[in-house]
Amino acid sequence: MSTKNLEAEGNISSVAAYYNGKSVLVTGATGFMGKVLIEKLLRSSPNVKAIYILVRPKAGQSMQNRVENMVKCKLFDRVREEWPNFHEKIKPINAELTQPNLAIAPEDAAELLSEVNVVFHCAATVRFDEPLKLALLLNARGTQQLLVLAHRMQHLEAFIHFSTAYANCNRRYIEEVIYPPPVEPKKLFDLVEWMDESLLEDITPKLIGDWPNTYTFTKALTEYLIQQEKGNLNVAIIRPSIVGASWREPFPGWIDNFNGTSGLLTAAGKGIIRTVKCNTEAVADIVPVDVAINLSLAAGWYTAVHRPKSMLIYNCTTGGLNPFCWGEMEYHVISTYKRNPLEKAFRIPNANMTSNYLMHQYWTAVSHKFPAFLYDLYLRLTGRKPRMMKLFHRLHKTMAFFEYFTSRTWEWNSDNMSMLMSQLSPKDKKLFCFDVRQLHWSEYIENYCVGTKKYLLNEDMAGIPAAKQHLRKLRNIQYALNTIFLVIIWRVFIARSQMAQNVWYFVVNLCYKFLNYFRASSSLRH
Questions:
Q1: CB under 8 Å to 142, separation ≥6 — which residues?
Q2: Rounded to whole angstroms, what are the CA distances from 481 to 476, 478, 485?
Q3: Share of the chain above pLDDT 70, in %
Q4: Rounded to whole angstroms, how far apart are CA atoms 461 and 452?
Q5: What is the pLDDT at residue 498?
Q6: Rounded distance, CA 45 to CA 25, Å?
Q7: How far apart are the first and last CA of the chain?
Q8: Mean pLDDT of the chain, nearest integer
Q9: Beta strand 90-94 with 50-55: parallel, antiparallel or unpaired?
Q10: 432 with 473, same domain?
Q11: What was the pLDDT predicted at 167?
Q12: Are 131 and 142 in contact (CB under 8 A)?
C-alpha cells in the first residue's frame, strides 16, 4: 500500500512525518513553552535533522551551561529513556534579540540561512510591568529582526509566531484577525529611541491606552508588524490564553515556573494566600501548555504543506469550547492541597474569592498583612531575618496585575483551530491533540496542583503523611489561638456585664453536664 493511502486511512502521522528530516529554529527555547516544544518535536519526530536554538548568556551562566541545564530537566525523561543522545540534535546559537542582526556570528547566520526549514518564535518578555522600551525591543523589534533573517533563509517553509490571546484584550469579542494598533510600531520605535526613560515611563499609560500592561500592548503591535513585513513568507500566529501546566504530555501536571497561575496556586497551597479579588463567575481561560504546543506543531505542518493564501491566526483558548470559572477552581485547588499538602505549609490551605473591594481589603488585612507582621516579629525576636511582609508585597503586586484577567470574560472565535483539527488524520488527532473539549477540569486542576508540589518545589510524594501531620499541628495551633483570642475578647469587652457572666456560667455548666452524661453512657455500654 502506498504512503498516501496509509495517510488517508490515518495509520501514520502526517505531522510527525513532516518534521522528520527538517531543520527547525526555536527562539525562547530555554523558556517554558520552548522546552515543551523541543521535547514534543524530539519525541514525535525522532528523525528531525536538527533543532537550532537561539540562546544568550544569562544570570552569570554561559550559553553552554544554560543548554546543559535545559537538557537535564525532568521534562526530557521520556525522550532520554528512548534516546539517550537526543541532545546531539540540539544546536545552540549565541544570539541576543535586542541587538542589531540578533548579534548572531556570520558563520552561524550562514548555517541558519542554508539549513532552516521551519521557525518557531517563542521568545518574549512575559513580565506585565516591563518598561515599555525593553518590552518593545524584546517583543516587537526582536521579531522584526527575526523576520529579516527569515526572508534570507533559502529553504524556509513556515514561520510560526507565538502571540497571546490577550493581545487584543481591550475588546470583548476577539476574532482570528489582526487588529490595527493605535500607533505605527515603527513610529514608536523612533520615539523610544531618543526619549528619556523617565519621561517615557510617565507617558506609557497614555501610549498603551486601554491595554492593561506593556506585555499585551507590545504583543498587539508585534502581530501588526508581522502582517506588514511578512512579505511572501508562510506565516501563522498562535494565540494561547493563560498557559498552565501540561494536561497529558510528557506527563500530567508538568510545570517549571512560578509565573501567573502557577505561583498563585503554590502560594495558596502553602497557606500564604487566603484571599483573591476576582469575579467568581468569570471564565478562567487556562490552556494547558501541551495543547498550545500540539496546535503550533500542527499549524507548522499545515502552513508549510498547504500554504494558505492568507496568514492564519489561531485563538488557542478554552473558554468558548469548555468553559471553567474561577469560582469552580477555588474548591478543586483547596481540596487537592488538603489531600496532597505541600511541605512546611505556612497555614492550612484556604481561600476566599470575592469581587467586593471592601471585603477583599478586610481579608487582606486580617489574613495576609497581620499574620505576616506577627511572623516577621517572631523571626526578629529569634534573631532571624524577616521575610513574610516582603513576600506578601510581591504576591499582592502579582495579584494586582492578574486581577484584570480574573475579573473579565472574553469571547474568542476559534474557527481556524476547528478547521485545522478537521485537516488532521485520526492518528494526528491523537498524537497532536489540542481538542480542549476532552479536558476534564477537576482532573486537570488536581494534576496541576500536584505538579506544583512535584516539579516546582521538588517535593517527594512519599512525604505526604508528614505534611498532613504538619497541617494537623497547624490546625491545633489555630484552635488554641482562636480560643485565646475569644477569652481575651470576653474578659476585656464582655465579662464586665452581669448578664454576660450568667450566660457564660450557663454554657460552662451545660458543657459539664454533657460530658458527665457522655461518660455515664460509655460506662454503661462497657
A1: 97, 98, 102, 123
A2: 9, 5, 6
A3: 91
A4: 12
A5: 66
A6: 15
A7: 81
A8: 88
A9: parallel
A10: no
A11: 94
A12: no
Q: Which domain holds residue 207?
A: 3-257+284-325+410-439
| Residue type present at position 335 | S
Give the SS3 label for residue 123: coil
Within a domain: 267? no
Other beta carbons within 10 angstroms of residue 229's beta carbon come to 17
Q: What is the pLDDT of residues 241-274, one digit of tens each?
A: 999 999 999 999 999 988 888 989 999 999 898 8
One domain, residues 420 and 469: no
Distances (CA, A) of 494 to 361, 482, 485, 501: 28, 16, 13, 8
Mean pLDDT of 37-66: 88
Q: Residue 285 and residue 410: Cα distance in Å, rounded?
A: 9
| pTM of this structure | 0.88
Angle between helices 415-423 and 289-306 (to 10 degrees): 70
**Domain contains 278:** no
247 and 290 in a single domain? The answer is yes
Q: Is the pLDDT of residue 388 over 90?
A: no
How confident is the model at residue 316, as a pLDDT? 95
User: Within this chain, do residues 514 and 415 fall inside the same structural domain, yes or no?
Assistant: no
The CATH code of the domain that includes 71 is 3.40.50.720
- HSE-CB of 183 using CA atoms within 13 angstroms: 18
Residue 343 is assigned to a structural domain of this protein: no
Cα–Cα distance between 145 and 129 in angstroms, integer? 24
Rounded mean pLDDT, 129-144: 90
Single residue among 388, 422, 439 that ends a domain in this structure: 439
Domain match, 431 and 492 both: no
Does 321 map to a domain? yes
Name the pLDDT band for 438 (thresholds 50, 70, 90).
very high
User: Tell me, what's the pLDDT at 26?
Assistant: 96
User: What pLDDT shows up at residue 490?
Assistant: 65
Instruction: Among 66-75, 246-255, 300-309, 402-411, name the one with the lowest average pLDDT.
Output: 66-75
Quick one: DSSP state of residue 345?
A: -
Closest Cα to residue 134, out of 220, 69, 192? 192
Same domain, 431 and 476: no
What secondary structure letter does DSSP report for 93?
E
Q: What are the two backbone dihedrals, phi and then psi, of residue 305, each rounded to the nearest 5 degrees?
A: -85, -45
Tally of domains within the chain? 2
Q: Which residue has the cell 500607533?
A: 183
Closest to 300 measured CA to CA, from 237, 373, 393, 360 = 237
φ/ψ (deg, to 5) at 252: -60, 140
CB of 306 within 8 A of CB of 158?
no
- Strand, helix or coil at 407? coil
Let me know whether 434 and 472 are in one domain.
Answer: no
Residue 491 has pLDDT above 70, yes or no: no
| Phi, then psi, of 495 in degrees rounded to 5 | -65, -15
